[in-house]
Design a protein that fits this description.
Blueprint lengths: L2 E5 L5 E5 L6 H6 L4 H9 L12 H21 L10 E6 L5 H8 L3 E8 L2 H12 L2 H6 L2 E5 L20 E7 L8 H9 L2 E12 L3 H14 L16 H12 L9 E12 L3 E4 L7 E8 L2
Parallel strand pairs: 3-4, 3-6, 4-5, 6-7
Antiparallel strand pairs: 1-2, 7-10, 8-9, 8-10
């Protein structure tokens, strides 16, 4: 969760968002717990099976890509936001389902996928090699490392290109890391002015527990058991307030952000993922834009 957990007598909890002060090495070593890595390593061989354990990710992918590009078009800053030639970073890319889709988009110049699971990343690289166009265009690259291990790119200097990213994606990642606040803070440093962070995660509500864990994992086995932990879910309000507290109202930071949109989404059997329902109930997507 994004900070300190306060438990009430009803055992519902509310997260107070605060930045965790920790060293670079400590943050890097705790980007994912050993249990989380072991869980996703076990899924490596079936990652690209559209009817296998990752099928809900495959079904969610069109909604992810449309959310990214539709949001950029709707909320671009005319003087700062690039609409094409986009440089993207996909954090926690797994086997590359979203990463490949981004690389195939003609508006994208390059995509780097980061993951800490060696087995899963080998599946991503292998699947990339099966598409001659992806190999030939050389737009897609994978790195076996944590976001904390990635050097912070330099801002554009006179006569030099901007090295930071136009878009950083963090889909289905924040609920799996020990310190989401530190991960977000690092991600913001990698985005150029006019650029974006796109994230999706799950609200910490009784309804989300019912649908994602009890029904999704325990009852229907649509998601491998142990994929989610309800206590790590992050409410939409908490994620929104993190940007307000740390990236909007802090004087002298030289960096300002705006959460421009968030949408609730739900999986509808025989239909797929759709944007519908409240954004503070179950799954949701959120887009934050860097203003300066």
């Amino acid at each position: 969760m994004l900070g300190t957990i306060k438990h009430s007598s009803s055992r519902l909890c509310q997260t107070t968002l605060r930045l965790t002060s920790r060293s670079h090495s400590t943050a890097s070593s705790s980007a994912f717990s050993p249990d989380e890595l072991a869980h996703f390593n076990a899924l490596a061989s079936s990652w690209w099976d559209a009817n296998g354990p990752s099928r809900l990710l495959h079904k969610m992918n069109p909604l992810r890509t449309s959310f990214i590009f539709d949001t950029i078009d709707a909320y671009a800053l005319p003087s700062k936001t690039r609409l094409s030639g986009l440089k993207m970073l996909d954090v926690g890319c797994g086997g590359g389902i979203l990463t490949e889709a981004l690389a195939r988009n003609p508006r994208v110049e390059s995509v780097t996928g980061l993951d800490m699971s060696e087995q899963v990343l080998e599946i991503a690289k292998k699947h990339k090699r099966q598409d001659p166009k992806l190999v030939m265009e050389q737009k897609l690259d994978y790195k076996l490392c944590s976001l904390f291990d990635l050097p912070v790119p330099e801002a554009a200097a006179e006569g030099k290109d901007e090295q930071r990213y136009d878009v950083v994606t963090m889909f289905e990642v924040l609920e799996h890391v020990p310190d989401p606040s530190a991960l977000l803070e690092t991600a913001t440093k990698l985005v150029r002015p006019g650029g974006w962070i796109f994230a999706s995660t799950v609200n910490r509500t009784a309804a989300a527990y019912l649908t994602t864990i009890f029904v999704g994992e325990d009852l229907l086995r649509m998601v491998p058991k142990g994929t989610h932990s309800w206590s790590k879910y992050i409410n939409e309000k908490e994620l929104r307030e993190w940007f307000i507290e740390h990236k909007t109202s802090v004087p002298g930071t030289g960096e300002h952000w705006d959460v421009v949109t968030s949408k609730g989404c739900i999986y509808i059997p025989f239909v797929g993922w759709e944007f519908c329902g409240p954004r503070d109930l179950g799954n949701y997507f959120l887009a934050a834009r860097r203003l300066s």
